[in-house]
Amino acid sequence: MTAASGTVARIEALRSAEMRRKRGWTLLFGAILALLVALSAYQGEVSWSKLVNGLPRLGTYIGRILPDLSLRSLGPDLADWMWNLPTWLSLLFDTLLIAFVSTVMGAVIGFFLSFPATRNLGFGPVTAQVVRRFLELLRTVPELVFALFFVFAFGLGPMAGVLAITLHTAGVLGKMFAEINETVSDRSLEGIVAAGATRDQVIRLGVVPQVAPAFISYVLLRFEINVRAASVIGFVGAGGIGQELMFVINQFIYHDISAILALLILTVALVDIVSEAIRHRIISSEVAHVPAAASQA
Amino acid sequence: MSPLPQARLEALHARYRGTVYPLPGPLWRGRLFWIGFTACFLAASAHLGLSPLRFWAGLGDLGIIAGQMWPPTHKGFLPEYLGALGETLAIAFLGTLAASLISLPLGFLGARNVIPNWLIHFSLRRGLDVVRGVDVLVWALIFVSVVGLGPFAGILAIAFNDTGVLAKIYAEAIENADRKASEAVRAAGGDEADVARLAILPQVFPVLISNSLYFFEANTRSATILGVVGAGGIGYFLADRIRVSAWSDAAFIILLILPTVAMIDVLSRWLRRLALGR
Amino acid sequence: MLELCSLSRSFADVRAVDAVSLSVAPGEFVGVIGRSGAGKSTLLRLINRLVEPTGGEIRFDGETVSGLRGRSLRDWRRRSAMIFQQFNLIDRLSVLDNVLVGRAASLPRWRSWTMAWPPADRAVAIEALDRLGIADLALKRADQLSGGQQQRVAIARALVQNPQLILADEPVASLDPHSTKLVMDSLARINREDGLTVLVNLHHLELAREYCRRVVGVAAGRVVFDGAIDDLDAEAIRTIYGAAPQ
Ligand SMILES: Nc1ncnc2c1ncn2[C@@H]1O[C@H](COP(=O)(O)OP(=O)(O)OP(=O)(O)O)[C@@H](O)[C@H]1O
Ligand SMILES: [Mg+2]
């Protein structure tokens, strides 16, 4: 009886100590968070009046950009709204092409850099580190910054945008590919090494077949992201729909803003749907290929 | 291995189709795919005006720019740069925080197991898709013309953009939350609010925290360029210095940005581990 | 003629293979037996040069192969084909492509890069699969095969390397009795018909008794028995397997 109540008391004491400790942590985190919020609000020039004044203006803005569509004269209204459709479609087409070309080029560069960045393929730790740092640099510099430089070197137009997105994509995909490469089973590679193959043959015959499905789905995912990137690369004159979009927003050509945004959202949604369908097919074809016979111990 | 006589090749070919000589079907399907793909790529490149000649010419210019980037200088603007860098971090922080707070209730609304009404669920998700379909820089540009130049537009842009993505992730996390816990709370007489608070929130909390931190990382990167459209932060100075060809100043700013982003990555990774560890 | 001269390999303070001297005549079928951790795998991997020796020498037909580098090392690996306990195939490649990996070392680089194998080599591969009775499976993915079938694919891969030596590291340890018999019979037939030297690590003494004329007993990295299978008496078994014979 006394022993039992002693135990209960001890557990209770432990519990309340734990609670106190937890509460202490929560308070500390809360205080830090509050401090950060206050500091950021100061630095970010946020104020209550701005919030109160700004948000209603957003409502007005949305009201202004929405097109005048009525059910009775839908056809003419739509035609009116989309008055510049051919130009916009051609710019959107360019945007898609920029995303396509730069995804392909970035993927190729990332592909070849991913192998020296992989630790267990025998390229040595120094090479792996150097290549990894390089990929990190490509990844950390935003596309738009590359684009700012490239517009200078390669002139205004899509070429600068393509190269900018290519570099960033190479950095992102190169790192992801290297991580996937490291999951490949060493055992199957050993089977190829033991047959007298060179390192590039081991990579081609052993690594590539095993990582290909994952690579392809990451590339498709990146393509989806790059379509979005390509749509704003025009803000600095590097091609695509961005320049036109920036122009109509800055000039307050309200209905054109909503028209271009609608077309852009539609395009992006279409790309996402198609790319997702392909990715799902890849994944399900993989699932269909699980070993038929449970043979291994 | 001595080569087999042609007759033996033919015999094996007849017996095991598609082994000695690959079946024309798959062989040509593969070839046509690559030929078509390459043709598409070349046509697209040509359409965009890419050419090796222009590339080589530009590379020369790029080399000159790179040469003029060294040594990086700040010409006495260091305090301004540091202030702008702080502004960048503030934009990322407040934007992420606001997005997290807004998307939590939206996530509950968008989760099928909390709100069974498919209409709400469907329209909410399509709305979020719209927000996600457009790059944050577009939102920034729009907010600049709504609330004026400055970091406030940047904060709103990030908050708005991320709400679209985070709410969807939260909704999925909530849908995937273990159903047994919800049933236990309901069996003990709890109503829907209790279920959300007691059964679902504890399960999804680590997911929420770790996603918010992850987005903070990504937003730090985005916030460095918001200044290009006038939405605050270091991007303003960077774009400006590049526009006037002050390459060594641009290099200095980039060298400020890179370690800051790396530092935020490390910090966020550490906090994520802390949040998931408990 | 394969000769090992006081061949050694240490891992940190473990002497996995300790001054092993051995010579194997062409066409011999030698079983290597010993308890787990005795150093059997390390010994075979040393011969194929998957593991670098820390001492001693490997000679083949008078040529010192333990010092080979680059091209000639790869050619030695091609000549001393390995077969592994876990088959070590590429799951996502077809059976035929897996076998053709054994031809990669003998073909120009671009062939393996494009995987456009010449029909002559494809025929050699399919012939090898035919000998092992699994040519019908040539176009299936390797991971769709049973363990016994996969191991025979691995043997076919070894065969098309055009080797002078086959090193099999516990080829049947993860197979059921039926597959075990198929695989061991295949190895015995290759040894008989092609006159290839075969070195095979075995866990089970019964298998060694059934297939090998000569056995080498290894304990703690050292050769403690080397002789005809008929000379393997209880005393010898005790020295190989220690206090608890199998
Ligand atoms: N790569 C390695 N690193 C460190 N130690 C190793 C390595 N490979 C083998 N060893 C050690 O060398 C010794 C011999 O190992 P080996 O695999 O050759 O034994 P084995 O006779 O094949 O055993 P088993 O029958 O279990 O396969 C063991 O003590 C093992 O721990
Ligand atoms: Mg072993």
Describe this entry's structure for a reader.
The complex is a heterotrimer of chains A (297), B (278) and C (246). Chain A folds into 2 domains: 2-58; 87-290, MetI-like (MetI-like fold), CATH 1.10.3720. Chain A has 11 helices and no strands. Chain A has helices spanning 2-43, 48-65, 74-81, 85-114, 125-140, 143-154, 158-181, 186-193, 199-232, 242-250, 254-287. The longest helix of chain A is centred in the N-terminal third of the chain and has 42 residues, at 2-43. Chain B has helices at 6-15, 24-47, 52-69, 78-110, 118-132, 136-147, 151-176, 179-187, 192-223, 235-243, 247-277. In chain B, helix 10 (235-243) packs antiparallel against helix 11 (247-277). Chain B is an all-alpha fold and 278 residues long. The longest helix of chain B has 33 residues, at 78-110. The model of chain B has no long low-confidence stretch (mean pLDDT 86). Helix content of chain B is 79%, strand content 0%. With 246 residues, chain C is an alpha/beta fold. In chain C, 37% of the residues lie in helices and 25% in strands. Chain C starts with a strand and ends in a 5-residue tail after the last helix. Chains in contact: A-B, A-C, B-C. The interface between A and C is medium-sized, with 27 and 43 residues. Magnesium ion (MG) binds next to helix 1 of chain C. Residues 40-41, 169-170 of chain C line the site of magnesium ion.
Label this structure with key terms.
heterotrimer, A: 297 residues, mainly alpha, MetI-like fold, 11 helices, 79% helix, 0% strand, extended, disordered C terminus, C: 246 residues, alpha/beta, Rossmann fold, six-stranded mixed beta sheet, four-stranded antiparallel beta sheet, binds adenosine-5'-triphosphate, binds magnesium ion
- The CATH architecture of the largest domain in chain B would be Orthogonal Bundle
Rounded mean pLDDT score of chain A = 88
- Indicate the proportion of strand residues of chain A: under 5%
Assign the CATH topology of the largest domain in chain A.
Answer: MetI-like fold
The CATH topology of the largest domain in chain B? MetI-like fold
- Integer count of domains of chain B: 2
- Determine the N-to-C terminus distance of chain B: 62 Å
Low-confidence stretches of chain B: none
Q: If you average the pLDDT of chain B, what whole number results?
A: 86
Low-pLDDT residue spans of chain A = 291-297
Annotation field: number of helices of chain B:
11
Query: Care to count the β-strands of chain B?
Result: 0
Question: Residue share in helices of chain B?
Answer: over 70%
User: Main beta sheet of chain B: strand number and arrangement?
Assistant: none
